[in-house]
Design brief:
The complex is a heterodimer. Chain A is of the alpha/beta class. In chain A, 39% of the residues lie in helices and 17% in strands. Chain A has helices spanning 40-48, 72-86, 98-109, 130-137, 141-151, 168-178, 183-193, 197-203, 225-230, 246-249, 251-258; strands at residues 2-5, 8-13, 25-29, 52-56, 91-96, 114-120, 208-213, 235-239. In chain A, strands 1-2-4-3-5-6-7-8 form an 8-stranded mixed beta sheet, sandwiched between helices. In chain A, helix 9 (225-230) links the parallel strand 7 and strand 8. In chain A, helix 2 (72-86) packs across helix 3 and helix 4 (130-137) runs antiparallel to helix 7 (183-193). By secondary structure, chain B is an alpha/beta fold. Chain B folds into 2 domains: 9-289, Aspartate Aminotransferase, domain 2 (3-Layer(aba) Sandwich), CATH 3.40.640.10; 292-435, Aspartate Aminotransferase, domain 1 (Alpha-Beta Complex). Chain B is 40% helix and 13% strand. Chain B has helices spanning 9-15, 42-49, 64-76, 88-99, 114-123, 139-145, 168-177, 190-193, 231-234, 238-241, 252-256, 260-273, 279-289, 292-311, 330-336, 353-361, 392-397, 414-435; strands at 81-85, 105-109, 130-134, 150-156, 182-185, 203-207, 221-225, 316-320, 344-349, 367-368, 378-380, 404-408. The N and C termini of chain B lie far apart (68 Å). Classes of the chains: A alpha/beta, B alpha/beta. Chains A and B meet through helix 1, helix 4, helix 5, helix 6 and helix 11 of A and helix 3, strand 1 and helix 11 of B.
């Protein structure tokens, strides 16, 4: 589905279906430098299970035009405008990494619109190393390499994909390589600069699912203490063997866990 | 700025795609010799059929053993995914059928393996797909042959039989300027000697029967997707960018991004044409790949010694190996194939068809058969076997002389191989002396 928001084209994958107001809606939001394709299996699944699905491409990502936004707050505001333009009154949001922060912020800003969030591969705060930021700012391929290498558990750096024949390290690297110049730096900076997350978390009223990879090296489980304290009612699910790129490292376990919320 | 190092070839060759078996702890990848796989419940079954979950349904489409091999070759080639096929020819056919239909056109190197040439020259035209064959040493020839309906550029890393070294970066540039993918047959070189995706290629195929296996006991092919070609921007590939009625209007580039090609090849090509690999074959090929790095180094080391021996012998008129100063691609080989140009090459005896026959019959260690890439050294005399119906003029048109011999150098001790070659050369020399 293509929409126009702020004079820019916005793409969202809907499983080739038009929005049905009588069905619940699940919005999927990708992480830094990624696009909607990371959610293909999940969005197909929840579309077949009686939901509208909308796997959005953030501005300047994938099939959406425009420039990347520079803060999580701006992205959340933009997503709210996308919802309005798409005719989505209420939704649950599944977000990965940067996308999880956007979900959190929008749930805090608009509790009447957001009925649940799943934060996948997340933490608060979400600091980004200088090495990654500097490489991303220089549009240096090393930024893609660092995120690809550290984005998988050590075991999954050697594959073992249950999705036949796909080399997940290579596929993830190609996705980063497809991102437009500067996009990754904007995204990583937004993660790094998101300082009001704990305050926003305190405002969240909807059910929250925290979906964490036990071997995540970018947002390690041990770093989620502040987030979990800010969201004491959150349902915490830790997936054994998975790193940060949970959608491809543990696609089936992620689906099963998402059913706890969706 | 340098990023973290990825695992290297020798490590990936042993580990990529494999984990200890979750059910038994088996360290070696088990042979999952099963046609089909149980569904825990109906919804799970539906989710597998609708591409919602990862898993296996039926071994024509995917199999846990094959999946490890597929990941392994994708990792070794720096690709995004791969499919194991019944043979190298099946991999080539699968790629073509995925990319195009009747009314399409291919530009291919004229120096192809005979099976690939036959497919393109004689079989595909019956299905409305034509091919123009061009000099692989001339990137401009590829460019000139491109038509509005061209959908693929195809060549081998080193050509047959003259080991013409393909200038992959230059031909890739030609292809990409025309919005076309470049597909490379890297059977003779393997990822140990060259990484075509790093040089601009978009799709790679292997006859895994050859060096990847090394043991000569199974037939198999591998098709690998590099994931960099922008099918949407090209606009020439509706199978990848437009709704596919055969799968509920799925648009492969929309849903699978970098893996659009390999996913369509699996969801349609393996499903409908069915040229899948047996899991036992996949297991055997993996046993070969585990030692690819050390084997290829030895293959090349032996080949260099034998090339030097033959090049200095009175009974040898010419040796065709790109590392020799008289080979037209020496400089390009140094640039693209610094670790060696493989272990298959041809040489011309200073003699006729009878001398060629005597040479082959005079060998003991070299096996006389129609294959290459075995751990054992192999020999064939094209004029008396694969090309026996052709007279001298017809052979010459194909770049083959009556005394041309093709060798595939194995892993034996090089001195023993040279001793064996001396016997053959002596037999050939006697024949020529008798003829005066």
């Amino acid at each position: 589905m293509k929409l126009t928001v702020n004079n820019e084209s916005v793409y969202g994958y809907t499983n080739s279906k038009t929005h049905n107001p009588s069905l619940p809606t699940v919005i999927f939001v990708h992480g830094s430098g990624m696009d909607h394709t990371v959610w293909t299996l999940a969005s197909r699944h929840f579309a077949r299970h009686g939901n509208n699905v909308f796997a959005v491409d953030l501005p300047g990502h994938g099939r959406s035009s425009g420039q990347p936004l520079s803060s999580v707050e701006a992205m959340a505001e933009w997503l709210q405008e996308v919802m309005s333009e798409a005719g989505i009154e209420q939704a649950k949001i599944v977000g990965h990494s940067l996308g999880s922060l956007i979900a959190l912020e929008l749930a805090a800003q608009k509790p009447e619109k957001i009925t649940g969030i799943a934060m996948v591969g997340t933490t608060l705060p979400m600091p980004v190393s200088d090495a990654i930021l500097n490489a991303a700012q220089a549009d240096d391929h090393a930024a893609f390499d660092m995120l690809t290498q550290w984005g998988f558990s050590k075991r999954h750096q050697f594959g073992g994909n249950r999705n036949s024949g796909l080399w997940m390290v290579g596929n993830t690297l190609r996705l980063y390589e497809r991102s437009r110049p500067g996009v990754l730096f904007h995204d990583m900076s937004a993660c790094n600069d998101y300082s009001e997350g704990v305050a926003s978390a305190a405002k969240v009223q909807c059910p929250v699912l925290l979906l964490l990879g036990a071997e995540d090296r970018l947002t390690p489980v041990r770093s989620t203490k502040a987030l979990r304290e800010a969201l004491p009612a959150a349902d915490v699910c830790i997936l054994d063997g998975a790193g940060h790129t949970i959608m491809v490292e543990a696609p089936n376990a992620m689906l099963d866990a998402l059913h706890r919320l969706l | 700025m340098a990023g973290p190092d990825y695992p290297k070839l020798d490590t990936l060759a042993l580990h990529a795609g494999a984990q200890p078996d979750p059910a038994t702890g088996a360290r070696a990848t088990p042979i999952y010799q099963s046609t089909s796989f149980c569904f825990p419940d109906s919804d799970y079954a539906a989710s597998l059929f609708n591409i919602e979950r990862a898993g296996h349904v039926y071994s024509r489409l995917s199999n846990p053993t094959n999946a490890v091999l597929e990941e392994r070759i994708a990792a070794l080639e720096d690709g995004v995914g791969a499919i194991a096929t019944a043979s190298g020819q099946a991999a080539l056919h699968l790629a073509i059928m995925t990319l195009m239909g009747a009314g399409s056109h291919i530009v291919a190197s004229a120096a192809l393996y005979g099976g690939s040439h036959n497919l393109m020259a004689y079989t595909l035209p019956r299905f409305g797909i034509e091919t123009t064959f061009v000099d692989p040493r001339d990137p401009e020839a590829f460019k000139s042959a491109i038509r509005d309906n061209t959908r693929l550029i195809f060549a081998e890393t080193v050509g047959n039989p003259g080991l013409d070294v393909l200038n992959i970066p230059a031909v890739a540039e030609v292809a990409h300027e025309a919005g076309l993918p470049l597909m490379i047959d890297s059977t003779f070189t393997t990822p140990y000697l060259i990484k075509p995706f790093m040089l601009g290629a978009d799709i790679i195929m292997h006859s895994a029967t050859k060096f990847l296996s090394g043991h000569g006991i199974v037939i198999g092919g591998l098709l690998v997707d590099g994931g960099r070609f922008d099918w949407d921007a090209s606009g020439k590939f509706p199978t990848l960018t437009e709704p596919y009625v055969g799968f509920h209007n799925l648009v492969f580039s929309e849903e699978f991004g970098p893996a659009a090609f390999i996913q369509r090849a699996r969801k349609e090509g393996l499903r409908d044409m069915g040229a899948c690999m047996s899991p036992t074959t996949a297991f055997h090929i993996m046993q070969g790949i585990e030692t690819l790095g050390i084997r290829m180094a030895r293959h090349v080391e032996n080949t260099r010694k034998i090339v030097d021996f033959l090049a200095a012998h009175d009974m040898v008129a010419r040796v065709g190996y790109p590392e020799l100063s008289n080979h037209p691609d020496k400089a390009l080989a140094e640039q693209l194939l610094p670790k060696g140009c493989g272990a298959v090459f041809s040489f011309d005896l200073a003699g006729d068809r009878d001398a060629g026959i005597a040479f082959v019959d005079g060998l003991t260690l070299f096996s006389h058969l129609a294959n290459v890439g075995d751990a054992k050294s192999l020999v064939i005399h094209p004029a008396s076997t694969t090309h026996h119906r052709m007279d001298a003029d017809a052979l010459a048109a194909g770049g083959i002389g009556e005394g041309t011999i093709r060798l595939s150098i194995g892993l034996e001790d090089a001195d023993d191989l040279i001793d064996d070659l001396k016997q053959g050369l002596r037999a050939a020399s006697k024949i020529m002396q008798k003829k005066g």
